[in-house]
């Protein structure tokens, strides 16, 4: 069982642009390679999750992104780690798989099942997708470019 008091946080970004979500395929370690995830990583000492997310997206994808909102919930990973997710808006740069990933894909909400997410990521991705899905015209929902 994950110890909620001491579990370390892995922060991941539901990076979106024009209603599509960015998925990243892990290249390492061998146990996770080939699985798709939301890009991100572990917090470093003294960092807030938002600061860690901005740093990780810069390191892994070469982009500047802005955390928008926490996706409610927390998902257990391996022993001692939990996944927290923020939606994040791309500010500049074209994401490239610079570190930890060997492929990136922009997925529309109805394409989310087209990749093999890491099993522990599925509920997190579903929760994130609900927050970036464009609502019906005129509803003011959705999260496209402003
Ligand atoms: N970034 C990320 N990691 C995930 C997800 N799902 C999941 O199980 N993980 C696991 C994989 C890793 O064991 C751990 C995150 O480690 P990481 O390797 O991305 O972290 P990091 O960039 O800080 O790397 P390092 O300093 O440990 O080398 O969480 C996810 O959606 N995003």
TrEMBL record:
Keyword Hydrolase: yes
SUPFAM superfamilies: Nudix (SSF55811)
Gene3D superfamilies linked: Nucleoside Triphosphate Pyrophosphohydrolase (3.90.79.10)
Region forming the signal peptide: none
UniProt organism field: Streptomyces formicae
InterPro entries found in the cross-reference section: MutT-like (IPR047127), Nudix_hydrolase (IPR020476), NUDIX_hydrolase-like_dom_sf (IPR015797), NUDIX_hydrolase_CS (IPR020084), NUDIX_hydrolase_dom (IPR000086)
Claim: DNA damage is one of the keywords in the record: yes
Documented EC number(s): 3.6.1.55
Family: Belongs to the Nudix hydrolase family.
Protein name: 8-oxo-dGTP diphosphatase
Annotated CDD domains: NUDIX_MutT_NudA_like (cd03425)
Reaction catalyzed: 8-oxo-dGTP + H2O = 8-oxo-dGMP + diphosphate + H(+)
